[in-house]
């Protein structure tokens, strides 16, 4: 289980919504630290390593953030871990 009331597997849209909740400053982007926290709270094994890999894969414009356009890349990458149906 990811969080209370959320069971696996989840949909792409649900995962996007979960990631967006970690945008703590409300700028519409997810920083590497915010992504690490999200993965840690998902209780993923090797969460820091996975967050780093997912971030490098998804930050297409290499600005140090995952924006709305790059979110699909992040969700696609995370789907490899079997948390999405």
TrEMBL record:
<keyword id="KW-0106">Calcium</keyword>
<feature type="domain" description="EF-hand">
    <location>
        <begin position="10"/>
        <end position="45"/>
    </location>
</feature>
<dbReference type="InterPro" id="IPR011992">
    <property type="entry name" value="EF-hand-dom_pair"/>
</dbReference>
<feature type="domain" description="EF-hand">
    <location>
        <begin position="53"/>
        <end position="81"/>
    </location>
</feature>
<dbReference type="GO" id="GO:0005509">
    <property type="term" value="F:calcium ion binding"/>
</dbReference>
<dbReference type="InterPro" id="IPR018247">
    <property type="entry name" value="EF_Hand_1_Ca_BS"/>
</dbReference>
<dbReference type="Pfam" id="PF13833">
    <property type="entry name" value="EF-hand_8"/>
</dbReference>
<protein>
    <recommendedName>
        <fullName>EF-hand domain-containing protein</fullName>
    </recommendedName>
</protein>
<dbReference type="InterPro" id="IPR002048">
    <property type="entry name" value="EF_hand_dom"/>
</dbReference>
<dbReference type="Pfam" id="PF00036">
    <property type="entry name" value="EF-hand_1"/>
</dbReference>
